[in-house]
Write a structure and sequence with these properties.
- With 182 residues, the protein is an alpha+beta fold.
- 16% of the residues lie in helices and 29% in strands.
- The protein has a five-stranded antiparallel sheet with strand order 1-2-3-6-7. A three-stranded antiparallel sheet has the order 4-5-8.
- The longest helix is centred in the first third of the chain and has 16 residues.
Length: 182
């Protein structure tokens, strides 16, 4: 609830409500390999829930179906508002994605909504080419670089039952407690 008095006016921001809750580790769905998703009403509803939940979650740049309890190969991502994203494709919703090409390697700090209290140094490819389909069944090929490539790899990992902790070299040297900023 937002209140204001004559001496201290406040602006009320309308809060967006996520379509679904985000599962947290150690939920078993997060560690299972997701099934292919079929086109149709189920895919459309899932895509809408993914986007709504991502948009309602502060600082979230991507979300995979297993994170909202659907063990299906689908994700959405949009890194356009992130300071590390130099180039990007805007909002991408992809079904049944496959990384078909990788190049380069870079280690950067990474976090996840399913492990909200941790971040880690994770080595990922600097460039990836990802193939999949849109919700309408249109083939989609994305050539992503930098931060967006990292986000694609992170989301595809979720579909394969992997979390970023599965990608760290050392649990003691590369994993950190997330810093919170007000």
């Amino acid at each position: 609830m937002c209140r204001s008095t004559r001496s201290t006016p406040r602006r009320c921001k309308k809060r967006r409500v996520p379509a679904r809750s985000v599962l947290r580790y150690p939920h078993p769905t997060l560690k299972a390999v997701a099934d292919a998703v079929r086109l149709g009403g189920e895919a459309e509803g899932l895509a809408a829930d993914l986007v709504d939940t991502m948009r309602a979650s502060p600082a979230c740049v991507g979300l995979a179906a297993p994170q909202i309890g659907a063990s299906l190969r689908a994700f959405c991502l949009d890194v356009s508002g992130h300071k590390r994203a130099k180039e990007n494709h805007g909002l991408v919703v992809m079904l049944n994605p496959v990384i078909v090409e990788r190049s380069g390697k870079v280690v950067l700090r990474e976090g996840c909504m399913s492990l909200p209290d941790l971040t880690a140094n994770v080595a990922r490819s600097e460039r990836v080419v990802v193939e999949g389909t849109t919700v309408d069944g249109v083939p989609l090929v994305v050539d992503a670089w930098g931060f967006e490539a990292r986000a694609f790899q992170h989301e595809v990992d979720h579909l394969d039952g992997l979390l970023f902790l599965d990608r760290v070299s050392s649990l003691t040297a590369d994993v950190f407690t997330r810093k919170r900023y007000d």
